[in-house]
Design a protein that fits this description.
Two copies of one chain form a homodimer. By secondary structure, chain A is an alpha+beta fold. Chain A has six helices and three strands; from the N terminus they run ααβααββαα. The longest helix of chain A has 15 residues. Chain A starts with a helix and ends with a helix. Chain A binds a DNA duplex through helix 3 and helix 4.
DNA sequence: TAGATATTTAGGCAAATATCTAAATAACTG
DNA sequence: CAGTTATTTAGATATTTGCCTAAATATCTA
């Protein structure tokens, strides 16, 4: 289960949403990501850290570079959160069945 | 199109997410909502205002009371935002067709 | 191991946020 | 219209956030 506080805080910043759109197209190094913004690398690093803490993205070092990717599982869980709001009380029966 | 900045900022607070869950069950007055929290009414009023600015909720005065409700349209649009992230480039053809 | 490249960590500051108390506004009621 | 109830607005304060520069860490290469 995602920590919705961290997830929505992460999503509340336009720089971070743009990073997500970049990573949707392809995994990328921190430097490549920073290249898409008019902002210092430490600032982008900060945003990447916020995204990482939210679990929306993961990172993996490969040699000198650190590659970032989207964590689709968490996005799916966020979709479920909204689905549960828009679709009243579905799953109620299943919950009870869980004896 | 929703203002994602305002929407995600609104969702980033646990009090506001709990308000959303309350309103999922039934429309409610500001006072009824405040009754569910250990917080002053002005603070809840502030949270309701943030939710209203995000368009996630609407308000309507009925006599002395102001009733709050969820705006399902915006929730659906947020679901679409996530759907577009999880489902790569779908709709691309349609976009081009829009000549 | 010294130098170069990639990235993060630390520290500081300005702006935004969440909360409170006190006061203002709106609507009903006798 | 005076009093009561429902809600918001204003003003103050503490915390968090986003950005920067400077310094530190990690890795590769000669």
């Amino acid at each position: 289960m995602p920590r919705f506080n961290l997830v929505f805080k992460a999503l509340a910043d336009p720089t971070r949403r743009k990073i997500i759109l970049l990573l949707k197209e392809a995994d990328m190094t921190a430097g490549e990501i920073a290249g898409h913004f008019d902002m210092t690398k430490p600032s982008i690093s900060h945003h990447l850290n916020v995204l990482k803490q939210s679990l929306l993205v993961t990172d993996e070092r490969k040699g000198q570079n650190i590659y970032y990717s989207l964590n689709m599982t968490v996005f799916q869980e966020v979709i479920n959160y909204f689905f549960n709001i828009t679709h009243k009380n579905e799953g109620e029966i299943d919950d009870e069945k869980g004896k």
